[in-house]
Predict the 3D structure of the following.
Amino acid sequence: MARINESYLNLKQSYLFDDIAKRVAAFRASHPEKNVISLGIGDVTRPLPQVCIDAMQKAVQEFADEATFRGYGPDRGYPFLREAIADGEYRSRGIDISPEEIFVSDGAKSDCGNIGDIFAQGNIVAISDPVYPVYLDTNIMAGRQVKLIDCSGRTSFAPEPPDFHADIVYLCSPNNPTGSALSRAQLQKWVDYARANEAILLYDSAYERFIREEGIPHSIYEIPGAKDCAIEFRSFSKTAGFTGVRCAYTIVPKALFARSDSSEKVSLHALWDRRQSTKFNGVSYIVQRGAAAIFTPEGRVQVDATIGYYLENAALILSGLREAGFECSGGVNAPYIWLKCPAGVGSWAFFDELLNRAAVVGTPGAGFGANGEGYFRLTAFGSRGATSEAVERIKKLMSI
Ligand code: PLP
C-alpha cells in the first residue's frame, strides 16, 4: 500500500475559516431573521478596475482569431507584464529588479508554500506568532523545524530578529493579521540578521498597495543588502481585486544563493526557474493582460480609488472601536484592524459574543497562533454601509 507524507498528520485538524464558517452557519440557521455582517475573511468586495475589465475583454477577443490566438504562454509570465512590473513597481522607486527576476504566478499563497520545494527539509524556519497560517502549515507539511518569533503586543506587533539561528525567515509587511507594517529601521535589522546567519528572508508584501505612511518601505529591496538575502512575494489580489481572477508574482534576485549539502553556493533564481518550468504552466494570457492594465495612468487612478475606499472603511472601524473603548492597531497601512478583546475575554469567546449579540463576524486572533489569543481581527473589505452598521452594532454592544 502507498505511504502518506506523515508530516500532514502534524497539521491542526481544521482550517481556521472552516471553524468560523461552521459557527456562522449554525447561527444563521437558528436566527434566520438576523442580518449577519462579516468583517471576517480577508476577501475583496469592490469590482475590478474598469481598465482590467477592458483589457481582459480585449484579450478574450484575441482568442477568437487564428492570427491572434495563443496557446501556452511563457511559464514565468509574458514579457509585457514582467516589464510593466519591473518598471511600475521597482524602477519607479529606484530599485533595480530586472524582468528576468520576476516570476508571474497564480497566487502569493501558492508561491509562499511552493517556495519550500527549493529548500532542504533540514532548514530551521522562523515564523512570527501570530501569523498568516500558510507559512506555518506548508512548513509543517514539509516536515521542517519551525521556531516561533513573538509578534504580539509585547513587541508592538513587529517581529524582531531572534537570538537563535534560523535559515529561513518569513516576514509579512503590511501584516496579516495584525495590520502593522515594518519600518525601514526594523527591516534593516532583519536584513542584517539574514546576512549574518546566511539566512533567506521570505518577504510577503501582498498588502503593499495599502502603505500610506512615509518611512514604511514598499519593497524589501529598498533595504541595502536585501538582494543578497531576500525573496519577495507580491499579489494583484488585494492590490486590484484579483482574488477570484488570480495573478501574483515572486521576485527571486539573481544575486541570491544558498548552499548545497557539499557547501557549494547554488543560485536560488536558477532553482526556482527550474521548479516553475517543471511544475507550472503559467497564468492565463487574459489575466496577465488584465494585471498589466493597472500600470497604465488610468489603472493607477482606479486602483488608488479602490484602496482608498477600503482604507476609509479601516479608518471608520478604528475610530469607532476606539470610541467604544477598544485598544486597537493596524488599519493605517493595511486593511486589517487588530483589536484587544475586553479584559479576561478570549478570542473565541469574543467571536461568539460578537456573533450572538451583534451578528457581526470577525476572526479570532487565536486562530493565527498562540500569541493571537486575546486579540481579534476585523477587515476593511466590506461595503461602506455594512462596515458602518457593524461598527454601530459593536459600539452599542459595548455600551450595554
Ligand atoms: N499573503 C498574505 C499575507 C495574505 O493575507 C494572502 C491572502 O489573504 C495572500 C498572501 C494570498 O494571496 P493570493 O491571493 O495572491 O494567493
Notes: The radius of gyration is 21 Å. Residues 185 and 215 are 9 Å apart (CA to CA). The chain has two domains: 13-42+298-399, 51-295. The chain is about 35% helix and 15% strand.
